[in-house]
């Protein structure tokens, strides 16, 4: 993905913006500083939230939440986190239910500390991207029809302007991270930053590495892997698996960039498969319980058998977050929803019309380009996720390594945390790492917070995951 | 498997023994009644343990433990439970760490109640089989060289004599259940009982059904499935999986009944695979932590990070049991070890020389025969087990159903317990059920006690697993 000529005017704009960074006074902007979030426990780090306008003319603005590191924020890197979807909220997802400093309280009225927050090791930036997601918006409705290219372009502008607003972080080591469809967002954004750096005269983004969890990278490999996972984890029958292998040519589908038109036969099987899986299993974590639907909850409560906890995880956290984020005083404290959007905040957008075709873009060449420029790439995978499962990601990484003619530096082996196997890992060359996280969902830091933090800390350090505890 | 002529004398002996049952006085034998086990909480049901001599001449005797049902023992069926191995203890495994009424306390000096014991719904009989396992023994050392046929034959004699000793249970509904290599033991024993019944003049075993968890049924299918499981659950690399598929012809190996001689190439890969998996993962439950080795435990204890609990399961229970069973007063209370064996009690036998060739016996024809005689067959599978994984069992059941020309009665779907998906199930015809247990290990009742009890209760009832909660 080279910089296309039509983007030259964007790069000029970005360079113009960044030119000013060096002469800015350091410190975050007072107007974005969060005083205190409703029901928030006391903490010693600063938080900021607000909007960055990425297109004045269209009235297009992206909402961000920034949590400084718990200690020594001035010596720690900046990590951007993006959730996927496409169309899901990084502030709702990453920041408040996965790796940020707070989780919603179970009454939905306040917050509790996340003891494994990634702001122990990094300053954390979360962005609702593209416009139309969460509290990000555009005054030009047609902006909500978008895709990978415009999303990456807007994020480049966002980061340029954000670093201008936070000049003390502008030259800090920068890491890009995220999950799921951020398998598209993050590499494409990294590519934009690196291309920008190539033509930049003064300011350059100090990009050091990218790390993506359960990422969509290659739709044909990832889709086939998804059904293989469902079968090998017992969610679908032998009969269906055999029928899928016979009738569903995912490869062919992707090559034609025709993501809707699959054969009638295949379509029928995939519908039957949904019946087999049923409605009460979390496909993002096949062994985690689900938050009980209210009717069942009522009945179970009578029998004193209801629980919101499964394997130590609060499985109702998404409802609690939904409630908390729609409290007016929460939105006020976050400087969010400044335009009074005509809909409630929701985790994934109902207004976005994101290009379905872009799902089919092969991300491996983008990753190849990034690695060839000396940037560290980690692909990690919660091993309980059937949606973008580990087998697809592992195969994608192997294919990438083969393409790059990288040899195995760390042969596939277990990695450890607190005396237990925390997952498996393999490293190709000096820059490409694959790692699973044992017992983790699609949302790795949500279901395995301690292992996820350890993985992220190791990623930042540039070391390999520990061999033994 | 028909009754072979050379076994006629055994059947005569058995019939002779059973002839007396009807005229016996009811009630368990006073000499086998357990007064109270050391450190045992108070309970209202009776327990018995002791020896049944299955061959007077050889001095061959099998040790059993029998726990009556918690309530209404006189109206509940009898279930025999056998652990596998071959060579592992049903009393140590099934009775005291899986589905029996007690678990060892974490100090190893006493017992605690298993709140999900299967004696809520059945009278439970556990037998150390064959001689050489646990406290079962023979005074004729050559008896320790044995295999499937002699094991089943001895168990037939055992059951005949046991029912004579416990006459009030002799006509009760009988269910055979177990796990792992009991995939060989149970069907072969059922076959023996049914063949006995065919020629019996008076007493007949009242066999109603068999149920086996993570059973070895067809070594070629089960072995291939094991490596597929390891791969799809992230424990081994893509590279190894590809190499295994290329070099390891498990099918060929089994057909030749040549279980040792695999190709050098395949052997090398399987060794490498062990490296990849590492030493600190429980292959019988790939997401459960392991009991920390003492050196690591010491270090972790200093950092206050040691835990014996993983996902609510005491992962050190096997050590606690080992300690408890070797206490002299425990052995005395159990009427065990009456010959002062020259070795400690251990979960799996070190003296047995069990035929490796018998692993290769195809059990599907035996199951077919049993079903054709109207006996209910359930195959269940803890879905976290890589040793005899669900995919192999599921395929075996499908192959069996196809062979029997049974149609699908219950299409593959989730089953429920306490408002959550407890696994998936499918039923063929009226008698053949397959079910997974979600989040369960090879030892299903150990890691998912509530789901396991619900499954067993449903099996006994003759119903299908619940569709919704």
Written account of the structure:
The structure is a homodimer of 469-residue chains. The first copy, chain A, is α/β, with parallel strands linked by helices. Chain A has a domain at 5-218 and 359-461: Rossmann fold. Chain A is 35% helix and 19% strand. Chain A is built from 15 helices and 17 strands. In chain A, the strands form four sheets. In chain A, strands 1, 2, 3, 6, 7, 9, 10, 14, 15, 16 and 17 form an eleven-stranded mixed sheet that branches. A two-stranded antiparallel sheet of chain A has the order 4-5. A two-stranded parallel sheet of chain A has the order 8-13. In chain A, strand 15 (408-417) and strand 16 form a beta hairpin. In chain A, helix 5 packs antiparallel against helix 13 and helix 12 (364-372) packs across helix 13. The longest helix of chain A has 18 residues, at 148-165. Chain A is globular. The first copy, chain A, starts with 7 loop residues before the first helix and ends in an 8-residue tail after the last helix. At the A-B interface, helix 5, helix 6, helix 8, helix 9 and helix 13 of A face helix 5, helix 6, helix 8, helix 9 and helix 13 of B.
């Amino acid at each position: 993905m080279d910089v296309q000529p039509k983007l030259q005017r964007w790069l000029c704009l970005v360079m113009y913006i960044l030119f000013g960074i060096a002469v800015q006074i350091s410190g975050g902007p007072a107007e974005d500083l969060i005083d205190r979030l409703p029901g928030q426990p006391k903490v010693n780090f600063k938080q900021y939230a607000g909007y960055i306008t990425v297109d004045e003319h269209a009235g297009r603005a992206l909402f961000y939440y920034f949590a400084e590191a718990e200690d020594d924020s001035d010596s720690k890197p900046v990590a951007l986190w993006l959730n996927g979807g496409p169309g899901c909220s990084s502030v709702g997802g990453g920041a408040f239910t996965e790796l940020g400093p707070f989780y919603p309280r179970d009454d939905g009225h306040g917050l509790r500390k996340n003891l494994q927050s990634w702001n122990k090791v990094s300053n954390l930036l979360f962005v609702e991207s593209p416009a139309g997601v969460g509290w990000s918006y555009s005054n030009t409705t047609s902006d909500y029809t978008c895709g990978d290219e415009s999303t990456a372009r807007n994020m480049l502008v966002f980061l340029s302007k954000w670093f201008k607003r936070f000049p003390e972080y502008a030259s800090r080591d920068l890491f890009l991270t995220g999950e799921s469809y951020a398998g598209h967002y993050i590499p494409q954004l990294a590519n934009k930053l690196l291309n920008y750096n190539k033509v930049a005269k003064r300011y350059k983004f100090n990009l050091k590495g990218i790390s993506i969890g359960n990422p969509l990278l290659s739709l044909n490999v990832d889709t086939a892997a998804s059904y293989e996972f469902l079968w090998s984890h017992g969610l679908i029958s032998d009969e269906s698996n055999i029928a899928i292998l016979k009738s569903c040519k995912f490869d062919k589908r992707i090559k034609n960039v025709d993501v809707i038109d699959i054969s009638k036969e295949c379509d029928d099987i995939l519908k039957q498969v949904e019946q087999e899986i049923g409605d009460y299993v979390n496909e993002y974590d096949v062994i985690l319980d689900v938050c009980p639907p209210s009717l069942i909850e009522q009945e179970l409560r009578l029998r004193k058998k209801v629980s919101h906890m499964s394997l130590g995880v609060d499985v109702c956290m998404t409802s609690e977050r939904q409630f908390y984020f729609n409290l007016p005083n929460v939105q006020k404290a976050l400087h969010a929803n400044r335009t009074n959007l005509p809909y409630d905040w929701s985790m994934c957008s109902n207004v976005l019309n994101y290009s379905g075709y872009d799902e089919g873009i092969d991300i491996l060449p983008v990753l190849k380009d990034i690695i060839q420029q000396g940037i560290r790439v980690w692909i990690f995978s919660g091993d309980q996720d059937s949606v973008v499962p580990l087998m697809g990601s592992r195969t994608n990484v192997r294919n990438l390594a083969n393409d790059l003619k990288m040899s195995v530096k760390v042969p596939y082996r277990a990695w450890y945390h607190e005396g237990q196997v925390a997952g498996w890992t393999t490293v190709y060359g000096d820059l490409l790492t694959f790692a699973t996280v044992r017992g983790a969902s699609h949302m790795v830091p949500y279901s395995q917070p301690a292992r996820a933090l350890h993985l992220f800390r190791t990623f930042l350090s540039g070391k390999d995951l520990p061999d033994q505890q």
